[in-house]
Each structure stands twice: as C-alpha cells, then as structure tokens.
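Encode chain A's predicted structure.
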Amino acid sequence: MVPNEGQQYMGIIQLLLHFGWIWVGLLAADDDGGENFLKSLEPLLSQNGICLAFTERIPNQAKWDTVGDINNLLSSIYQIFKDRKVNTFILYGGSLTMISLNNMLFLGNTGYMGNISLSKVWILTTQVDFMLIGTQRYLNFDLLHGAIAFTIHSNELQLFKKYLSNIKPYQENQNNFLKEFWEQAFDCLFPNLDGSMQVDDMCTGEEKLENLPGAIFEMHMTGPSYSVYNAVYAIAYALKAMASSNSMNGKRVQFQDLQPWQLHPFLQSISFNNSAGETVSFNDKKEIEAGFDIVNMVTFPNRSFLRVKVGRVDSSAPTGKQFIIHDDMIVWQRTFNQGPPLSVCNDYCQPGSQKKKKEGEKFCCYNCVPCPEGKISSQKDMLDCVKCGEDQYPSKDQSGCIYKVITFLSFEEPLGISLALLAISFCLITGLVLRTFVKHRDTPIVKANNQDITYTLLVSLLLCFLCSLLFLGEPSKLTCLLRQSAFGIIFTVAVSCVLAKTITVVVAFMATKPGSSMKKWVGKGLANSILLSCSLVQAAICVEWLGTSPPFPYLDTQSLNREIIAECNEGSDIMFYLVLGYLGLLSLISLTVAFPARKLPDSFNEAKFITFSMLIFCSVWLSFVPTYLSTKGKYLVAVEIFSILASSAGLLACIFSPKCYIIVLRPELNKREQLIRRKN
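Encoded structure for chain A:
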C-alpha cells in the first residue's frame, strides 16, 4: 500500500525546479537499488534542464578493502564538498549507506578536508528517511539540519496518540517484542522473572513514550505505519466484498483455503474512507492513490530531530496542486541565512542578457552575453532574447519593453501652434484682400481680367489656407478622407483660376489684331470653361480615389524606434501622386503660357505676376516630393502644411499685392485715364 516511486522522482524534479537548483550532486548506495535509482532519475533530470555536477556511489563499510580504497573515497568526498557551486545533494540508500557516508565525513573532516564547509541542502528519498529512526546514535545529525525529505503520505488517526500513551510493557497478551523495544528505547533493563538481576537503570514500565525524542520514537502516525493501517483495512474490505459476492451466488467462502489471487479482483475495486477522513482506493494502473509528503528536518543538540511537513506530492490531485511546497515553513542550514542557497553552475544571466553555451561543458554551464540590438530579456537565465511588440521598444539596459509614444502634429505643441497661427493669419489677410476687392469692385483694376475669376481665386486661396488645418491633430476617419481630396480639389480650382487668367490675357491680346478669329473667344465664357473643366478632372480623380482606396487612420509602428506615428495612410500611393501630378501639370501649363505673355503691352496684364507666382508654386512642390519621401512622422505633416501655405501665399502675394498697393496706397492710379495714359 505504498505509492508509485515515479511520483517521488517527479517530486524531486519539481522541488529542484521550484528553487532553481539546476546544478546538483547525486549520492546513491553502491548496490542494485542505487543503480535502479540512478537509471530512473538521471534521464528525468536531463529532460527538465537539470545537470548533475557529480554522481557518487557509496559502498558499505564492509567493502572498504584497503587503505587505498579509503583514500580514494575520501578524495572524492573532498572534491564534492570543495565545490561551492553545488549546494544541493540528493541522497538515496539505506541505514548502512548513511552510516558509511557519516564515517567518511568524520574521517575526512579529521584529515585533509580541513575546514571545508559541510553545509549543503540534502534531499532525502523515502528509503533514507525510513532508515533515520534507529540510527541516530551513529549519525551526525547536524549535517541533516534543514534537509528536505520525501516520506510516504500519512495522516493523524483518531485516538492513535491516546493508544500509544496507554501502552504498558506489562499488559497482558503482550509479546516479548514490546519489552525488547522498551529496553532499547529507554536504555534500561527489565529484571528477571525471579528478580535476581538488579542494575542501576531498571525499567519500571511506567515510562512514557511521549517523553522519548522524535529520533527514537514518534508519537504521530508515520508514513509506513499509515500504509500498514490502510493495507489492513483494505484487506478487510476486500474479504467482506468477497464474502458478499459469494453469498449472493449461494456459495460459502472457505477462508482457510483462500488463495491470494482470488482476492485481487475485490482488492482492486475497494474504496473506503479511513478514520482520518481520507479516501483509500486504487487507480486504473492498480496503484494506491496516495502520494508523498515533503518534510523538513530540524535537528537539535541532543541528537534528536523533528519532521515538519512543508509540502505534498500527489499525481491524482487537480492540475496546479499536484506539487505543493510552503517555502516560509522551511528551516535552512544556519550558514544559508534562512534562505534557499543557489545551486547553479554559474551565476544567473541577468535581464538584458542571454545564455551562450560553453563548448565542451554540460548545458547548465554557459556564458552570459548581452541581447542583440532590438531584443530584450526580462527574466533571469533566458535562453534567447525576444523582440518587443510592435508598439514597444527595448529599454536602455534591454531588460524590458517600453511602450512607444503615439505622436502626431498637435495643436498644443510649438510647431503645430506656429503653423496654425500662420494659416489663420494668411486666412485673415486673404479675407482682407477679398473685402478690399469687393469694396472697390467698380474700379478699373478690379474689373480687369475677369472679376468673377478673381473672386473665385481669392476664395479658393482662403480655403487652401483653411484646409491646412485638417492636417493638424490626431488623424480620424473624417480628416483622413478630407485632407488630400480637399487639398487637391481646392488647389486645382486656384491653379485653374490662374490658368484661366493667363489664357484670357493671351486671347485678349491676340483678339486686338485686325481680322483675328480670337474675338469670338473673348469674354467670361472661356475663363469659366477652363476653370470648370480643369476642376472637374481633379474632382473625378478624387472621387475615384475615395471610392476605390480611400485614405484611413493608421498607426505606423515601424518607421521610428521609440514612437508610433499616428498618420493617414493614403490608401493608394498611385492616386495620391496622380493628384499631385495633375496639379503639377496645370501649374506647368500656366507657367508656359504666362512666361511669354509677361511682356504684352497691357496695363492690366497679370502675366508677369502669374509667372512669378507659378515659379514659386512649382519650386515649392518640386521641393516637397523628395522631402515627403525622406521625412517621417509629424515633420512630414509639417512639410506638407508648409508647402500648402508657402505655395498659396506665393499666389496671394505675387498676384494681389501689386493691385492692393494701387487700390490702398495709390488710388490716383486706379483710374481709367491714368491706366490709358500708362498704356500709351
């Protein structure tokens, strides 16, 4: 009625991993049991990333044949304890193994081992723990202070302590075993039946078992005793089940002729609750569902010790509770400052670095190298550094990820405020110019070159300055849709007005020649047709753009290392450059037409001013394209806003400042007689 030993192996693995002990030593008895233990545990250690610093077989003292053998053993023990990196030893064996190890340590400590510290964390298997009682007189128990042992699971039974307290060696029906135990436990002797033997330490029979040290006798239920108790009850329940089964079949059980195999089917199916309240049953593999307790050994100067239950291993428990350990209950070796020691081949790789295997050494031994650029490690001993998420970037020491800041050209920052104030200022200036022209709409200089086109140009320039404000602030679905399309259409209207004005000047001059057929084109119809047709083409392009691949808000996490750019994705780069290309085509046509017309003999000739405005316009947007392609983030938006403001201001200044000068400062020149005189 003991649990599968495989649970103990997995418990050892979980314990080592829990405390990070990956560089451990293994000591096992030099017999078949020790050999099987090594074959079972070593592969499990390797599979779970735990390395063996050494494996030492401990022979019984009977096999210490020569002085040379003893010296070899002592030398091995010396090397084991000399290595300060190995602070965790796993021990498997019986009582003779413990005594042999104790004697080797005694001989070594009195010989050339000198003052080497023997403080280690000992992990004791169930076999070792079972043999501790009865060997306390032969062992140095200080060595095991703070040891962690695996014991067969037990629980306190009702009335068990009371039963032990009432046991007397003179009770009737007691066999000689109890008297022999009494003499060994209390180190006394009972007198002979005739009373002839008298010694100083006579057993009275009134001694109390609870007064014995725990190393000699434990008053609580031990694992082996608990297993025997459950086994007896299991047999009883199996016999009862067999008797009931045969009774139903009309048969009578002959218990004196019962064979063990006949009981197996009933034994495997039993399930009952013992007096401790625990369910006793077998699993599908016909193994008892019990598990192991994890106990902490606390030793005392009087060579006694105390087992303190600090955890449990139970494979049948729910996931997450199959291994339980209470760190705060564990008492450690005094030299460990009441904390678990390190037991690793080398120091942990700190966050910001990763492991790099040392050639020719076990995988637990490695170098620590910094993480490659752009990667981080946030935990100790990471095998590989990892990249941060798209919205994060590595910290300076590469030990963690920092969230990138979302950036855009806002109204609150100095650059955004400056551009917004500049745009509003130009809007006010344009509005003032428009008001001036409306106020003086009956003067010759305003009437010249198609008054309606002039008003349309001023309104479109006003809207151009205003549309630049759409590029400020965090992009939204609406602003992304309006930005480029509004800019493209409004700017096209402005450039179309300039082109219409230029062609009007050229046609008007050509119509003055005798017999010219251009006279039929003179008038508002030509200018309005040019304005409408050119604007409709750009509007069609923008409608197609918005209908097929419209711009949308987008977070660019790749362009900048520490910032996320909140921008408008143009949806289709082809359509975006098609809008710009069409604008460029109109401006080049205007420049081509205006340049030769700048010297025409007309007092109202705007061609020379249009030439300058188109030169500024083309220069600005030719500079914009390479700058746009090489700039990222909010500065790209700032470049586009500046280009809109600069080109619009160029048109406003070159075309309207000369006229405003005459209207406001030189009104005497704004008369038909003066203009005719200047023309002649």
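Residues 162-211 form one domain.
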